[in-house]
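Q: Hi! First time asking for a complex rather than a single chain. Here are the components, and I think there are two in total. Is that enough to go on?
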Amino acid sequence: EAAVTQSPRNKVAVTGGKVTLSCNQTNNHNNMYWYRQDTGHGLRLIHYSYGAGSTEKGDIPDGYKASRPSQENFSLILELATPSQTSVYFCASGESSYEQYFGPGTRLTVL
Amino acid sequence: QQKVQQSPESLSVPEGGMASLNCTSSDRNFQYFWWYRQHSGEGPKALMSIFSDGDKKEGRFTAHLNKASLHVSLHIRDSQPSDSALYFCAASAVNTGNYKYVFGAGTRLKVIA
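A: Yes, that's all I need. Here is the structure of the assembled complex.
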């Protein structure tokens, strides 16, 4: 079965600090995605990638960077974390219009 | 305004009953639809897709799409307590090649035993 893993699962950060969320997939999918989930907003797309070396801005990219160093790995970077970035973050992988496979999520709290 | 709107926000049905969830897109470019289900503490998992007008049935789940009104629904018959979860509708634009989905805010379903 398709597998997407995320680390860490929980993270507490201080305002102004740097946070890196990591995602690994063993599906050999070209496309990878980062979402955040907040009550009342559903899942909102932050950044996505079509393959190693590529990153694209999603619907809410401000305050976030992404890195795709390999087919398997996709990172989300918060250079200067703010309390408004407290959320649950999900990584997903997929191909074309087929289903996306989600990881278990990372709960980030910025104090 | 969100491009994909879901209703109701929450829904309670008795075990064995029928649950009906609705989703409407405000963007005529969005014509590929997926339903995802998320149990508490987990990531969302795809339930089914629907890309053509009409009904699509998979087990106890039936999706219906009306492209003219950009409305898609999900009907769960013989609802089970294990169906209690947050359900998302996701829509994608046709022929864009970038395969991004826009998700609705979700409908929280509770099946009461």
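A: Chain A has no helices and eleven strands. Let me know if you'd like any chain examined more closely.
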